[in-house]
Amino acid sequence: VRRCKKEDLKRIARATGAALVASLSNLEGEESFEAAFLGSAEEVAQNRICDDELIIIKGTKAKPAASIILRGANDIYVDEMDRSVHDSLCAVIRVIESKS
After folding, report:
1. What are phi and psi of 39, to 5 degrees?
2. Cα–Cα–Cα angle for 65, 2, 9, nearest 5°?
3. Residue 59 φ/ψ region, left for φ over 0, alpha for ψ in the -120 to 50 degree band, beta for the rest
4. Residues 56, 46: contact at Cβ < 8 Å?
5. Among positive and negative, which fits the CA dihedral 67, 35, 6, 44?
């Protein structure tokens, strides 16, 4: 994965069971690599949706994760959808926490 925000890299690492590595250099200054740093996924693909390039990762074994892609006519609609989805997810979390 290249040109990715650090926050997104952390999410990918958490979902796939990988570890973020800042450098491949060891204490002796040589480059080394350990397979334990790798995560796993059944499929990784880069798809273009509208004007955005998205990395789709399917079949992660470490933790299940999901993304919601919102599209609208303008930013006002997308912002309103974002608030509605956030409110809905908060309501679901409250129900799960209360175990009702």
Report:
1. -100, -170
2. 35
3. left
4. yes
5. negative
Predicted confidence (pLDDT) per residue in 15-53, tens digit: 888 888 877 777 777 887 788 888 888 998 888 888 888
| Residues making up the chain, counted from first to last | 100
- The DSSP 8-state label assigned to residue 25 in this structure reads B
Which DSSP string corresponds to 56-100?
EEE--SSS---------SSHHHHHHHHHHHHHHHHHHHHHHHHT-
Q: What is the pLDDT of residues 63-76, one digit of tens each?
A: 777 888 888 889 99
Q: Six-digit token pair at 61?
A: 């074994």
pTM for the whole structure: 0.64
- Those residues whose C-beta lies under 8 Å from the C-beta of residue 65, and which sit 6 or more positions away, are 11, 14, 15
Residue type, 73: A
